[in-house]
Design brief:
Number of domains: 2
CATH superfamily of the largest domain: ABC transporter type 1, transmembrane domain
Radius of gyration: 25 Å
Distance between the termini: 39 Å
Shape: elongated
CATH architecture of the largest domain: Up-down Bundle
CATH topology of the largest domain: ABC transporter transmembrane region fold
Order of helices and strands: HHHHHHHH
Length: 271
């Protein structure tokens, strides 16, 4: 659930998704760090590609037993790509997580400021546990936007375009195959997995809120539940919700596995 950035959204449409531009606006304070993280990530992926290419050439050329000077540049390139990949990857993780933590800290402050304006008159529709789950889990989920959406897409576009261009210079037919599989992995696979998980994600958020609310009700109303003999009923309700949430999470994990399998299949087909 995206946190509204302006008060334009009213209760008449509480479940409407935020526009993509409005969602990306959340990451604007960390734009420079995200750009640096994307650049470092591109360097890491580029180094990995260079390592595969130079190491394969080195092995095949070394099988012909040439002079050592012929292989010197390739040996140096393999060492350079191998070392730089680790440094670039570490820098990308460091800068990217720093940006995510800064955005989350700012969003938590904004959420509580908006909450002060609404409470208590604007919050009777939410149970305490459900509201707690929304404030904690939904805000924390924004780190996926910072870590798993913006930099990976920027890296994929930059490195993918550069790689296709390089392969085109070497072998145009291979570049066409590579571009086709890259486009399929960037469009068809996300669309399919998104279609499969859209309903699961919605149910998972609702069930997570229901489970948290039920647990909070059990803890806060333990004495009243004991007096009326309703403790077992409440525990059974919590267990039932937990089983439903587990089933939804399992289904979402299976869908993620399908997406990873399709991506791996496309990579194999490209090769």
């Amino acid at each position: 659930m995206s946190v509204p950035t302006t008060p334009r959204r009213t209760a008449t449409d509480p479940g409407a998704p935020a526009p993509i531009g409005r969602t990306l606006w959340i990451a604007r304070p960390a734009a420079r760090r995200l750009a640096l993280a994307s650049l470092l990530g591109s360097g890491a992926v580029g180094a990995a590609i260079g390592l595969m290419g130079t190491s394969a050439w080195l092995l095949s050329r070394a099988a012909q037993h040439p002079s050592e000077s012929t292989l010197a540049m390739a040996i140096v390139a393999v060492q350079l790509f191998a070392l730089s990949r680790g440094f670039f990857r570490y820098g990308e993780r460091l800068v990217g997580h720093d940006a995510a933590f800064r955005v989350l800290a700012a969003q938590r402050v904004r959420v509580y400021r908006h909450l002060e304006r609404l409470a208590p008159a604007g919050l009777p529709a939410f149970r305490g546990g459900d509201l707690l789950a929304r404030l904690v889990a939904d805000v924390d989920s924004l780190q996926d936007l910072i870590l798993r959406v913006i930099p990976p897409f920027a890296i994929a576009i930059f490195v993918g375009t550069s790689t296709v261009g390089l392969v085109w210079v070497l072998l145009p037919g291979a570049a066409v195959v590579l571009a086709s599989t890259l486009l399929a992995s960037a469009t068809a696979v996300p669309w399919l997995t998104g279609t499969l998980t859209r309903r699961n994600e919605s149910n998972q958020a609702a069930l997570r809120g229901e489970l948290t609310a039920s647990v909070v009700d059990l803890i806060e109303g333990a004495s009243e539940l004991a007096v009326y003999g309703a403790t077992d009923t409440q525990l059974a309700r919590i267990s039932s919700t937990d089983r439903e949430l587990t089933a939804v999470a399992t289904s979402a994990a299976a869908t993620a596995g399908i997406g990873l399998g399709l991506t791996t299949l496309l990579a194999g087909l490209a090769a």
